[in-house]
Amino acid sequence: MARDLPYADGLRITAPRSAAMPLASVPGAAAVMDAARCAFGVERCERLPLRARLLDVLEQLDRGYLLAFACGAAPAVWLDGQPDIALLAGVLFTYGYVQIVGRHRDNANIVYFGLSPAGGRKLREGRAWWNSLSCWQRLKVRIFG
């Protein structure tokens, strides 16, 4: 797995998405989303798990970092600086918080995802919720989820 990390390590959108970006289009985007949901799918629940970590991931996606998804026999996900992204990938895919941005130009099995409008809404809600918590409540959420 470590040999695949350079594909996603530090990859970030610094300019508006355009034809000049190194990402290629994804034929069959619906099939890719179905594969991601199948590999990392979770049941919808009333209270999302790892709320503070999820907020961190959404903020990182909002800053322009991309979530890399490797399709294949052993699906995997990467996000720069987020070691526990595999735990949250199911939430991101199931709730539609990410959308396909493109695929790696040299390896068609690696597809990149960015923040979707639903993810942006959840990020705004999450920031408002986080700002309403006291210091003690924030600590409890960080430790216990």
Task: Please provide a written account of the structure.
The chain has 145 residues and is an alpha+beta fold. It has one domain. 41% of the residues lie in helices and 13% in strands. It is built from 5 helices and 4 strands, in the order ααββαββαα. A 4-stranded antiparallel beta sheet has the order 2-1-4-3. A hairpin with a 5-residue loop joins strand 1 and strand 2. It is elongated. The N terminus is likely disordered.
Tags for this model:
alpha+beta; elongated; single chain; about 140 residues
Short overview:
The chain has 145 residues and is α+β, with helices and mostly antiparallel strands. The chain has helices at 29-40, 51-62, 85-94, 117-132, 135-144, and strands at residues 67-70, 76-78, 98-103, 110-115.
Q: Based on helices, strands and strand pairing, what is the structural class? A: alpha+beta
Strand order of the largest sheet: 2-1-4-3
Shape: elongated
Q: Provide the helix percentage.
A: 40-55%
DSSP strand content: 5-15%
Q: What is the strand and helix layout of this fold?
A:
Blueprint: H1 29-40, H2 51-62, E1 67-70, E2 76-78, H3 85-94, E3 98-103, E4 110-115, H4 117-132, H5 135-144
Antiparallel strand pairs: 1-2, 1-4, 3-4
